[in-house]
Amino acid sequence: MAETLFALDRDNYRECQSLFRGKREQEYYRGDYWVEDASEVDVRAERRAAGPHSIIRIRSATRQFFRRTRQHIREDGTDLCVLWFVKRGRLVFSNQCGNQVAQPGDFLITRSMSPFFIECDPDENGLHEVLNVTVPTHLLRTHIVHDVATSLFVAMRRELVIAENILSEVLADEGVTAEDLARTLVEAALSAVGHAVRQNGAAVPARQTVAERRLEEVLRFIEIHLSDPTMSTATVSRGCGISPRYLSFLLRTSGTSFSELIWQQRLDRAKEWLANSGPDDISISEIAYGVGFKSPAHFSRMFKRVFAVNPREFRLSATGGNDPAQGGAEPHFECVLEVPTTLQ
C-alpha cells in the first residue's frame, strides 16, 4: 500500500532538504533538493516499496530542483538508478554532456554516480507529475546491459507504456497484492524497460536468418513439450518439420547437443520449481515427472550430479523449511543409475 514519502506546503517547504528522502532517509540518494519560493507551494510524494525497489509518484504545483554533485558522491557512494516516467510538465536534465528536456510521455534513467542537475517545471495548468522507480544499479543490470554511465533517454515505446501501467497499478494497490507478487510485477516492468532500451533507435528490427528462425521454433517446441519423457530428436524434428540431421546442425551452431539441452532445461526448471515451493505444495516426485523425468530416482541422481546436492537438500536450503524426512512428508530418493534411452 502506498504511503506518503513527503508533503510540502508554505509552512514546511524550507525543510524540504531533510524531508525528501523520507523519515529514515532511505529513499533516493544524497543531494541538494529545493522548491521555488512561490505564492503556492504544493508538492506531494507517495511511495510503495517492492523488495529493494521503490515506486514513487511526485505531484507538484511548484517548480522543483535537484542537484547531485561530486561532493555528494564522495559522501554517499550509493549506486542507484532512478527511472523517470514524465506524466505532466517538463523535466530539464543537465550534466557535463549538455541539457536534455523530457516532455510528457518521455522516459529517462539517471544514475547517482555521476553529477547532474534536474529542474521540474509545471505545465500550463500549473501541474507537474512524474513516476519514479528507484533501482540499485547492480540489479538493473540484470535487465539493462547498456552502460548507464550518466543518463539514458529512450524514445517512447509500447514496452514502456506497459511498464508504466504495471508500476502505476502496484502503486495504487490498496494492500490486496502480496509483497512477493508486487516485487514480481516490478521485475516484469523492469524487463519491459530493458526490452525497450535494447530496441531503442532500431527503426527496423534485425532480420533473422532462416537458421535462426528454425532454432527459435525448435527451442519453443522443446519448452512446450518439456514434460514429455519420450521426447527425442525424432519427435522434435517431426514436430518442427525438419530432418534430425538439420536439428543436430542447428543445435551445434548454438554450442550444445540435443541431450545436453534437454537435461539442462529440465534440471533448471526443476531447480526453479524446488526453490519456490515447499513439500506441502508439491512433492519432489511430482516435480520430477513434471519436467519430463521417467522416475524420481533418476531425477535425484542427475540433480545431484549437476548441483552437488540432492533435490531435498536443495529445497531445504532454498526455502529454509523443516526437513520433511523428519515428519515423513516427502520421501528421499536414493540415487539409481537410469539410462535416458530416448535421448540417445
TrEMBL record:
The keyword Transcription regulation applies. Keywords: DNA-binding, Transcription, Transcription regulation. The keyword Transcription regulation applies. Residues 216-317 form the HTH araC/xylS-type domain. PROSITE patterns: HTH_ARAC_FAMILY_1 (PS00041), HTH_ARAC_FAMILY_2 (PS01124). Pfam families: HTH_18. This is AraC family transcriptional regulator. It comes from Sphingomonas oligophenolica.
